[in-house]
Design goal:
- With 375 residues, the chain is of the alpha/beta class.
- It folds into 2 domains: 2-180 and 291-373, Aminopeptidase; 182-289, Alpha-Beta Plaits, CATH 3.30.70.360.
- The protein contains 10 helices and 16 strands.
- A hairpin with a 2-residue loop joins strand 4 and strand 5 (100-102).
- It binds zinc ion.
- Zinc ion (ZN) binds at residues 82, 108-109, 142, 167, 325.
Length: 375
């Protein structure tokens, strides 16, 4: 075990330069062409280091998804990762400052791809036989809600004993993620009656006024104790200040800790009733990602990881977080899912997005040992 860590430490520079290449091959979710280019580099890296070919899951709207299978075990471990980022090209140039490497998607989650690849590469070179085959599923649309990859993720998860997610660790602590909130996205549209704001104010029905009532109701459904939050993050409406607005809408982000709470809130949002006479409401949307709820099996997986960390000489906590990932889908199917196995760093999706370079080897060693220990 310590030999593995030792070798990976010697290879930290090599991992970092491959990561630099991958980060520089920028891949915003909305550019199919760039995601595919970046995907070609991933294919090349897996061919070079593991001698395996990617199976492309072709897409017409977003970049292709990649499936890479290593080993021949009867049972399967699924490693989930995504190649797309939230970054438009050129916004956050790659740079290194001290122990930090910055760049678009370096933490979320190209670093996780490189670490897991080096984990398997090192096992392979040491001649360690894995009992299970490892399937890497590297998708192209996670940052936009996984509309095209979800079905593939779920199908692979159902064939797997466990799912390991190479998303970043909890910021600052490096903890694994054994709980994630479910995420719902809704749009509430109010309709009123447009009139001249001066001549016919009384005959008008303001969609904006109606929506204002609904916004307060929505926000008040927040219950921090239950872990339920509602955020009206975008509002639009009206045309001119001298016109009573006939249309207005609000975009709502819902987060819940349990599936039951998701159902309850979904009902509450669809059950909203208009307050003003003559106005109406149209609600659309749904729970996009179910919550990742910590089960006994997830707790046991975390226990294995913590023991490995102990023997490698570092502490490894667990955390429950508000953000969702593709691990939410697999956990909701009842497949034990351990998330947050990627890089340690901070600032995902923000100007400060970076990884801690000197943790690359440690995390890759953790990943490699997990692949060996899971049975
Ligand atoms: Zn991510």
């Amino acid at each position: 075990m310590s030999e593995l860590l030792h070798i990976l430490k010697e290879r930290q520079g090599e991992m970092l330069s491959s990561l630099e290449r991958l980060v520089k091959a920028e891949s915003p979710s909305n550019s199919r062409e760039l995601v595919n280019k970046s995907g070609e580099l991933v294919e090349h890296l897996f061919a070079q280091h593991l001698d395996i070919r990617a199976e492309k899951i072709l897409q017409s709207q977003v970049g292709h998804h990649l499936k890479l299978t290593y080993g021949k075990g009867v049972e399967q471990i699924l490693v989930l990762a995504h190649l797309d980022t939230v970054w438009d090209v050129g916004r956050l140039p790659f740079r290194i400052e001290g122990n930090r490497a910055y760049g678009p998607g370096i933490l979320d989650m190209k670093g996780g791809i490189i670490q897991s690849l080096w984990a398997v590469k090192t096992l392979r070179e040491l001649g360690v036989r894995l009992k299970k085959r490892i399937v890497f599923l590297i998708t192209s649309d996670e940052e936009i809600g996984s509309p095209t990859s979800r079905a593939y993720i779920e199908a692979e998860a159902l064939k797997s004993k466990v799912v390991l997610v190479a998303e970043p660790a909890e910021a600052k602590t490096g903890a694994l993620k054994t709980g994630r909130k479910g995420v719902g996205m809704f749009v509430v549209k109010a309709q009123g009656i447009a009139t001249h704001a001066g001549n016919n104010h009384a005959q008008g029905v303001s969609a904006i006024e109606e929506l204002a009532h609904q916004i307060l109701k929505l926000q008040q459904l927040t219950d921090y104790e239950k872990g339920t939050t509602l955020n009206v993050g975008v509002i639009k409406g009206g045309t001119r200040s001298n016109v009573v607005a006939s249309e207005a809408e609000a975009e709502v982000d819902l987060r819940v800790a349990t599936a039951a709470e998701g159902k309850r809130l979904e009902q509450a949002i669809f059950g909203l009733e208009p307050k003003l006479k003559g106005s109406s409401l149209v609600v659309t949307g749904e729970m996009n990602r179910p919550p990742l709820e910590r089960t006994a099996a997830i707790g046991a997986l975390y226990g294995i990881a913590r023991n490995i960390a102990d023997s490698l000489g570092f502490e490894l906590g667990e955390a429950s977080v508000g953000g969702g990932s593709d691990g939410n889908f697999t956990a909701a199917l009842g497949i034990p899912t351990l998330d947050g196995l990627g890089c340690i760093g901070d600032g995902a999706h923000g100007e400060n997005e970076h990884i801690e370079i000197d943790k690359l080897a440690e995390r890759a060693a953790l990943f490699a040992n997990l692949l060996v220990k899971i049975d």
